[in-house]
Amino acid sequence: MANPIAISRDGNVMVLTINRPDKRNALTHEMYYQLCDGLQQAEKDPEIHACLLRGQSNCFTAGNDLSNFLADGGFDESNAAARFIQLLPTLSKPLVAAVGGNAVGIGCTLLPHCDMVIAADTATFMLPFVNLGIVPEAGSSTLIPQMCGGPLAAELLLLGEPFDVERAKQVGLVNYSCTEAELMDLAMTYAQKFASRPPQAMQQAKRLLKLSQPQLGQVMQAEFSALGERLASDETRRVIQARLKR
Question: Which domains does the chain show, CATH number per domain?
Answer without folding.
Answer: 5-180 (3.90.226.10)
